[in-house]
Amino acid sequence: xxxxKTHKDLQVYRLAFQAAVEIYQVSRSFPPEEKYSLTDQIxxxxxxxxxxxxEAFRKKRYPKxxxxxxxxxxxxxxETQVWLDFSLEFNYIDKEKHALINxxxxxxxxxxxxxxxxxxxxxx
Length: 124
Hints:
The chain contains five helices and no strands. The chain is an all-alpha fold. It has one domain (7-122): de novo design (two linked rop proteins) (Up-down Bundle). α1 (11-27) runs antiparallel to α4 and α2 runs antiparallel to α3. It starts with 10 loop residues before the first helix and ends with a helix.
């Protein structure tokens, strides 16, 4: 069993970080008129997933705060999926790239829900 010392050891954090990097890379090709709307929003929400996971990990001494931060991460992940859907609808990304990234967020969401539902295993 892997020892988890920091948030960077969490599988869900690593997956969220990888997905945020992918979003940055694909959003570099979005049109300039999307810079202050779709591009900024999808980058912000994807990065916020990682930040909220890190904050939750540091608050595991406080179960309610831990759950609240994981819930924030869950909401940001879902928001990122909405921006991905817009990116697909506007033909800024292809169906294959959308499916790959969206699948990562489905896994991230599943892992966050599991952590929330089993918070007693994480909090001390």
